[in-house]
Amino acid sequence: MKKFILNFFLSFLILFSAWFPVLSEAEDEEKEILHLYPSDRIDLYSDLSEDFSKYFLEYADGYVILLHGYLSELKKLDTKPKITLRIYSSCTDYRAYLLKKEIPIKKIIFFEMTESESWEKFEISGCYSNEKFFFRSFQHRLTESFLNDPARRLPFWFHQGFVEYIENTWFLADDYTILPIKNDNYLRRMYSLKKALKKKKIIEPLFLSSEGKWKQKPLLNYPMNWLVFTYLFDVHPEGRKILRRFFLNSDETTREDPAKPFHEVFDFLKSSEPYSLKDLEENFHSYLSSLEPVKGYEFYKSYKNSNVPSTKIKFLEEAIQANPHSTLYPYSMAKEYFEIQEFQKSLDLAERVISLEIRHKQALDLAIHASFEVQNFSKLEYYLYLGYEMGLDKEKYKPIEEELLEFLRNTPDSPKFKPPVAFLSYY
Fold first, then answer.
1. Where are the domains of the chain?
2. CATH class as words, domain 297-410
3. Of 123, 51, 120, 48, the residue nearest 88 (C-alpha)
4. Are 250 and 261 spatial neighbours (Cβ–Cβ below 8 Å)?
5. What does each of the 427 residues of the chain score in pLDDT, given as a tens digit?
6. What is the spatial distance between Cα 427 and Cα 416, in angstroms, rounded to a whole number?
7. Does the predicted model carry a pTM greater than 0.70?
8. Backbone conformation region of residue 196, classed left if phi is above 0, alpha if psi is from -120 to 50, else beta
9. Phi, psi for residue 419 in degrees, rounded to 5
10. Which residues contact 293 (CB under 8 A, 6 or more apart)?
């Protein structure tokens, strides 16, 4: 019996040793698809061109330094991050990688966190499509991933505020440099609300919100959270000290029960600092009252007061020139062009809005109708799908969809519109 077991074990070892190199070869074959571009902070695996990969590594390295610097203002960091980035030129290859990692594939893929040991060691991956979307979606996922470990023990408003602060205070320019610029939509929203919020408490209700409660009013809380965090980080002389105290007083129960750190922080400040929660609230209201209209808004108001289409468009052109990152002005101009039946110009402007804010439902609606009017069925197919993903009412577009389906049946080989984001389950 012992001899049989020994022979079986030896046979297994021989079989395994013959099989194992095949495994290694398969793994090496996968690694050969992506080339390694290392830096002190990042290991970038990419099959994109060498020039682009080196450029992207430099950009990503700079953004990690930016994030690390901001986070180190709030928390003592003993180690530097070491991040793995995997970038595929083929979204089909990226899909296969996600399936192999057993990560659920969403219909809209930007970037995903695919591994995480701690805040300073994690992997994110993605596939390349349109340049602006590629960089912006990378920026979002890296910021989220960077907070992954600290976020588990921070109040939701803190986690969300930090992400909103980084993403909406630093704008990614067309040449991929990072510029300090406030979020136009958020500023406009807060400027319009400052009178309505004048006598209401803001800081305390926000800081006591659990994740579930926070998400009940996202249209208010996203810009509000961003503005409060911006105020504490950049304006209030003791704001960063307050944020640091929240790091110290948070634990694994904080996300759904933020009251404990809230009271601990403000009890400490009350006993050791010459100001209180009431002072903080009053100072924030003074800051809120000082907000000015966003750039280009004076031209937008003139546009709203005009009844002549050509004059309205002229005012909007000036508004866009004053504030090229706004979505309000090009969307308004897209509507004007649609009204006077210049559908191609309307489509171009709607696409500009979508490139700045992919979830802009009104711009998606306009892109669908303008694509239909100019009979650009490849774009119509794309924007219908995107609109449905964003929650647009399918019944509203049924007649348009029927014409599209008839076109696709009659011209099955018609070219597809290359989307600015990878829709892996669709293409």
1. 35-151, 184-289, 297-410
2. mainly alpha
3. 48
4. yes
5. 444 444 444 443 333 333 333 333 334 444 448 999 999 999 999 998 898 898 889 888 888 888 888 888 887 777 778 889 999 887 778 888 888 888 776 644 556 666 666 666 788 888 876 555 677 678 778 887 777 665 567 888 888 888 888 877 654 443 434 444 456 667 777 877 887 888 788 999 999 988 888 888 877 888 888 889 989 988 898 899 889 888 888 776 776 778 888 888 888 877 777 678 888 999 999 988 888 777 888 898 899 999 999 999 999 999 999 988 788 899 999 999 999 999 999 999 999 888 777 668 899 999 999 999 999 999 998 888 878 877 788 899 999 999 999 998 898 887 776 544 333 222 2
6. 9
7. no
8. alpha
9. -75, 160
10. 188, 191
Fold exhibited by the domain 35-151: Glutaredoxin (3.40.30)
